[in-house]
Amino acid sequence: MASSPSTFPALLLLSLLLALSTPSPSAAVRGLQHVKTPSPPRFSARGQAERLIRSLNLFPNETVNLLASDPFKSESGIVEKRIQLTVSGDSGSSVEDLGHHAGYFRLPNTKGARMFYFFFESRNRKQDPVVIWLTGGPGCGSEIALFYENGPFKIADDLTLVWNAYGWDKVSNIIFVDQPTGTGFSYTTDEDDIRHDETGVSNDLYSFLQEFFKKHPEYTKNDFFITGESYAGHYIPALASRVHKGNTVKEGIHINLKGFAIGNGLTNPAIQYAAYADYALDMKLIDQSTRNDINNELVPECKKSIDSCNTEGGDACDESKGICNQIFSEIVSLQYGINYYDIRKQCEGSLCYDFSNAERFLNSRKVKQAIGVGDIDFVSCSSMVYSAMSNDWMQNLEVGIPALLEARVNVLIYAGEYDLICNWLGNWRWVNTMQWSGRKGFAGAATAPFKVAGKVAGLLKNHGPLSFLKVHDAGHMVPMDQPKASLEMLHRWLNGTLA
Questions:
Q1: What region does 252 belong to: left with phi over 0, alpha with psi -120 to 50, or beta?
Q2: Mind telling me the catalytic residues?
Q3: Which domain, by its residues, includes 202?
Q4: What is the Cα–Cα distance from 344 to 475, expressed in whole angstroms?
Q5: What string of H, E and C letters represents the secondary structure of 240-307?
Q6: Quick one: CA torsion of 190, 194, 196, 197, rounded to 10 degrees?
Q7: In 3D, which of 359, 360, 356, 337 has the Cα closest to residue 348?
């Protein structure tokens, strides 16, 4: 499995993942042996973010949702309303029968931040697990996943809604949140509330979950799972650790955490960046000579810079991101126009995906009234939030996962095989090198075909609470590329029958 040509799963949800510097004349072309001491390119993190946002055909009016005053200032806790959007097609249930909610939560320990969320009750039964979805970026709203990946419905070309036959609400009660503060419809009245690290992000999410279960006590006994993709490879382990800690010290409402799943995530940068050239060689994006040059010249500098980030923090982490992204830029510069979220595809000019209907739909007055956001703009992806998380990028979030595995929290790492930016090989390597009591058992476990409707849809390896799934014929966003397989994956995993 480790050497098969493939990629890694999906849940980035239009993320802005790896900060991509403007490709320079390829050092690989002129010979990387001349690049003895790579220096990080000096470019604006916000400029990177804006280029990546445009590649998804998104043009938010604001760089962040920073309001002059709080339209809900008289409200504390959760302000939630039941929504009944018109949906075409057959879902098996009418909208009137289902609990569709949208709301705001006033985040404690902030000057004026409110987190926006959607909550969709299961189309199957209320006793199904509760799943929270976290979109990456960092800085992208959850609505991209909601409407283009695994939400209850999709947006048609005429901006009407149609039921998604493979929405994850068919097997779970699912929450989509706009986080960190300033993304999507989430907002603040003070720039100091913009988060810079996983401590702030996970504390906000934990506070939200506490209030959510207080608002919906009928779900406190349900199994709870955390899911997401792309930069959520950082968010998810941090939140899982925060929930586990809260449960351990009996802080607030006990959250019945059973597992978390990361799709095409960035979790352990040191290992994942070092895998770029090997993956690119396997997929015939570069030749053997270029692979050797990158691994001999750029990778050691990247690892050295990550070590500095780990010991010094701060600006050393920002510099590390610039140094390490030269690896990615070298590969992309040799494949002009390639869609690095799905290497089977080419981008048309700067456009790699078109998610613009989400902006049009969510910024319409009728929809805003229906979901209770008033005049607040939908910031599809926030370049300010992206920039604010710059020093968080190169942090290793794998370090907290072994303790969760020992506590029998189920972990699923999945990846679409044609994603370059968070490729399956880099994820496969950090999973295999992770130090936990089941490491040898996982290494010795057999790799089995993952079959959906009688057809092989991927390759699966499992031992105890840890599973790794490489999804066939998918890029960075597995639920979008392989919706049927992703729903089946989720269903079996939630019920403990994936292995």
A1: left
A2: 230, 419, 476
A3: 1-499
A4: 8
A5: HHHHHHHHHCCCCCCCCEEEEEEEEECCCHHHHHHCHHHHHHHCCCCCHHHHHHHHHHHHHHHHHHHH
A6: 120
A7: 337
The total of structural domains in the chain comes to: 1
Q: Is 24 helix (H, G, I), strand (E, B) or coil?
A: coil
Q: How many residues does the chain have?
A: 499
pLDDT, tens digit, for every residue of 454-498? 999 999 999 999 999 999 999 999 999 999 999 999 999 999 999
Residue linked to tokens 């590390």: 320
CATH classification of the domain holding 445: 3.40.50.1820
> For residue 312, what are its two tokens?
């010094």
Give the distance from CA 371 to its chain's centroid.
Answer: 24
Q: What is the DSSP secondary-structure string of 70-112?
A: -TTTT--SEEEEE----EES--SS-GGGS-EEEEEEE-TTSSS
User: Which 8-state DSSP code applies to residue 120?
Assistant: E
> What per-residue confidence (pLDDT) applies to 24?
37
Paired tokens of 326: 């030269």
Beta strand 410-416 pairing with 466-471? parallel
d(Cα 290, Cα 122) in Å, to the nearest integer? 50
Structure tokens given for 3: 């050497």
